[in-house]
Design brief:
alpha/beta; Alpha/beta knot; 4-stranded mixed sheet; 7 helices
């Protein structure tokens, strides 16, 4: 089964050029074939192709359904992009598959990467969502200054994962079912001590993601999976 993304389905009854090419040229769908669509906001649509054009494949909606999310809380991962952008892209892909709701790239004191291509990450998110057949597309925010971000954080539970040797709790023990959750993940050089202190002063809880020292992108995936698993 293939899932096609149609964000403007309420006003447009045709696929985008990219989706049309995949549907008609790659998958060889033709007139009368049924396809599954989503707007990325939790709605799915059964539709029938009326004009299999490779640049603007037209369809008619047969039925629609509102899908339940795989979890009943909101999960936000804020993470410093890795120097090797392919590692960040891998993390974004896997977190989308697992079920993250929002991702914010952070610009931290020790960040080695100070710019990202949002369009590239958006395409990876879309591809991962379609591959995992999820009708909910995670929100990707622009690269955001760390200090600005933590002052505006509004989630009910907020955590900062770091590697300093101080009292920390296990994230798996701190997740509260049904409550919105934000986890901060630092760059490859970790957060600065001042960044950790600033977060703690704003009510963030210091947490550990296990006994091993994890790469940034691995920490992002582990945090995401832990939060989803503990809310299952």
């Amino acid at each position: 089964m293939y899932l096609f993304y149609t964000p403007n389905i309420s006003t447009e009854s045709f696929l985008s050029e990219e989706e049309s090419a995949h549907c008609v040229r790659v998958l060889r769908y033709t007139r009368g074939d049924e396809i599954l669509l989503t707007d990325g906001r939790g709605n799915t649509y059964n539709a029938r192709i009326t004009n299999p054009h490779p640049k603007h494949c037209e369809f008619e909606i047969i039925s629609s359904e509102r899908q339940r999310k795989s979890h009943d809380f909101y999960l936000h991962i804020a993470i410093a992009p890795t120097k090797n952008i392919e590692r960040m892209e891998w993390m974004v892909e896997k977190c989308t598959e697992i079920g993250v709701d929002e991702i914010t790239p952070l610009l931290c004191r020790f960040s080695e990467r100070k710019q990202i291509r949002e369009d590239r990450l958006e395409k990876i998110i879309l591809s991962a969502a379609k591959q995992s057949l999820t009708p909910y597309l995670p929100k990707l925010n622009p690269l955001t200054d760390y200090n600005t971000f933590i002052k505006c954080a509004h989630e009910e539970t907020r955590f900062i994962a770091h590697c300093y040797k101080e009292d920390k709790r296990e994230l798996k023990d701190e997740i509260q079912k049904g409550k919105s959750c934000l986890v901060l993940i630092g760059p490859e050089g970790d957060f600065s001590e001042q960044e950790v202190a600033d977060a703690l002063s704003l009510g963030f809880v210091p947490v550990s993601l296990g006994n091993s020292r994890l790469r940034t992108e691995t920490a992002g995936v582990v945090a995401c999976h832990t939060a989803i698993l503990m809310n299952a």
